[in-house]
Amino acid sequence: MSGSSSFKIREILRILAGHYGNISWWPGDTDEVMIGAILTQQTRWENVRKALGNLRDRNLCSLSAIHGADSGEIGELVRCTGFYRLKTHRLKTLAAYVMETYGSVDAMTGEPSDRLRAGLLKIKGVGAETADSILCYGFSRTSFVIDAYTEKICSCCGILHRRDQLKTLFEDVLPQDPDAYKRAHAHIVEYAKEYCGKKRCNECILENLKE
DNA sequence: GACCAGGTCCTTG
DNA sequence: CAAGGACATGGT
Questions:
Q1: Are A182 and A25 a contacting pair, CB within 8 Å?
Q2: CA/C1' separation A55–B3 (Å)
Q3: How far is the CA of A181 from the C1' of B2 (A)?
Q4: Rounded CA separation A180/A27 (Å)
């Protein structure tokens, strides 16, 4: 029943908010969020931070710069994030899309969220999670990010749905406030890193964090 | 040395 | 449509 799922999701969000409070997460300008969203695919954030630093040192931490840069150079700078040839190609594709369609990242801010999302999803290498990360953290839109952690925590709590259905469930429960979206996803990731080992996650969040 | 990380795409059965 | 493999480096 989706009624019971909604109730559980409210509980999860309430407990996490009480436990982690106002954490700040994924700082940086829109360019950096977009680049980071590609680089963090299946990769620890520590390695992504290094790569972003490498790009910044060479003044390549923007889509306009990446659009004009040599792929070999980008590859060296993002190598520490793994899948570096693949990610370099994805960054170039994303940069080409943005520069050729909008002319600049700033020019995208006038676009409504659903059209922004549809455009991003057409890019090879930008799936739902990457697109929603960009919308939520890069453009402060109320588009909730569902990742493997969210799926796992929900699953632990008996909420078994596909990712797009989970997205709808969370968005129906959350207030229409981009900061609430940003915080909620950050809470989920922080919780999961702390409590959900890969093999065993049999202690439910509702038990771990009970007041 | 084995195993996994804030995914996505492509190929198979 | 579910499942499995490829992509690759760095940390435990």
A1: yes
A2: 29
A3: 37
A4: 15
Read off the pTM.
0.95
Structure confidence by residue, pLDDT tens digits, A9-53: 999 999 999 989 998 888 789 999 999 999 999 999 999 999 999
Give the CB-side neighbour count of residue A201, counting CA atoms within 13 A.
Answer: 21
Q: Which tens digits make up the pLDDT trace of A88-137? A: 999 999 999 999 999 999 999 999 999 999 999 999 999 999 999 999 99
Given a contact cutoff of 8 angstroms between Cβ atoms, the answer to whether A131 and A117 are in contact is: yes
Q: Write the single-letter amino acid at A141.
A: R
Q: How far is CA A195 from CA A11, A14, A147, A209, in A?
A: 17, 17, 16, 10
